[in-house]
């Protein structure tokens, strides 16, 4: 027997959205993963680094999964609940966790790191990344691409421009900061939301998909979406991701 709309809403509206762990959605939503395997590639690059900086680390979930951290590993995060989670995961492994507001200037000296990484950054401060990289060092990042989950944005907000997170713009910005882009890949990936609670949880956690989202504000559209899923099956959307790797000229490769 399917759960009622009120039950689904109540559960999703009160679930914790701290950190960057989406396991609450297991069995309720799914998303294809990029073919390149960011976590594996990150582990390979971390194993060869002497000093690494992970920007906007969230709850430290991805970095904590790296088999071998560099001798000097620093992670930054701005949101206090995530800082606490990141510290609990990363400090036992010898990593430093630094509170930072995700705005320039980064609180590190010039040329401090031979590897800077970030998974799904809200903003990429290319000039600052170039400043803190050593010559020959690299920036390695998986980012949200254009029109990601646009189907949900359009459902709640109507026609909306989601094209700003473009990989070609990222390339141009990296090159403008003096970095050389050595890898750039892009994929669109199928997502399915199997109940309205999954949609609510996702939008509470990934706040830029529908800015200002709340259950109260979108009660009518949520009720309609529940009825649609019950009648037609999962709500289908598509995320977009791109992988970018850029090196700072000079010196040995990181």
UniProtKB/TrEMBL annotation:
<feature type="domain" description="Methyltransferase type 11">
    <location>
        <begin position="53"/>
        <end position="139"/>
    </location>
</feature>
<dbReference type="Pfam" id="PF08241">
    <property type="entry name" value="Methyltransf_11"/>
</dbReference>
<dbReference type="InterPro" id="IPR029063">
    <property type="entry name" value="SAM-dependent_MTases_sf"/>
</dbReference>
<dbReference type="InterPro" id="IPR013216">
    <property type="entry name" value="Methyltransf_11"/>
</dbReference>
<keyword id="KW-0808">Transferase</keyword>
<keyword id="KW-0489">Methyltransferase</keyword>
<dbReference type="GO" id="GO:0032259">
    <property type="term" value="P:methylation"/>
</dbReference>
<dbReference type="InterPro" id="IPR052939">
    <property type="entry name" value="23S_rRNA_MeTrnsfrase_RlmA"/>
</dbReference>
<dbReference type="GO" id="GO:0008757">
    <property type="term" value="F:S-adenosylmethionine-dependent methyltransferase activity"/>
</dbReference>
<protein>
    <submittedName>
        <fullName>SAM-dependent methyltransferase</fullName>
    </submittedName>
</protein>
């Amino acid at each position: 027997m399917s759960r009622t709309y009120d039950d689904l809403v109540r559960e999703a509206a009160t679930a914790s959205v701290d950190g960057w762990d989406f396991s609450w959605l297991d069995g309720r939503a799914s998303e294809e993963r990029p073919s390149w395997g960011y976590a594996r590639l990150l582990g390979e690059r971390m194993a060869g680094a002497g000093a690494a900086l992970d920007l906007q680390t969230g709850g430290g979930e991805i970095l904590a999964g790296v088999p071998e951290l560099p001798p000097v590993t620093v992670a930054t995060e701005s949101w206090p609940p995530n800082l606490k989670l990141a510290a609990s995961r990363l400090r036992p492994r010898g990593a430093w966790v630094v509170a930072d507001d995700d705005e320039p200037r980064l609180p590190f000296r010039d040329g401090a790191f031979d590897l800077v990484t970030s998974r799904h950054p809200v903003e990429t401060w290319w000039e600052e990344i170039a400043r803190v990289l050593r010559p020959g060092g690299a920036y390695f990042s998986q980012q949200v691409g254009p029109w990601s989950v646009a189907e949900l944005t359009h459902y709640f907000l109507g026609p909306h421009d989601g094209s700003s997170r473009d990989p070609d713009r990222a390339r141009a910005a990296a090159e403008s900061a003096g970095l050389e882009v050595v890898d750039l890949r892009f994929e669109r990936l199928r997502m399915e939301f199997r109940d309205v609670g999954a949609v609510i949880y996702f939008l509470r956690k990934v706040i830029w998909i529908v800015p200002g989202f709340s259950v109260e504000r979108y009660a009518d559209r949520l009720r309609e979406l529940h009825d649609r899923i019950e009648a037609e099956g999962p709500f289908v959307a598509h995320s977009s991701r791109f992988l970018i790797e850029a090196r700072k000229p000079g010196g040995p490769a990181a």
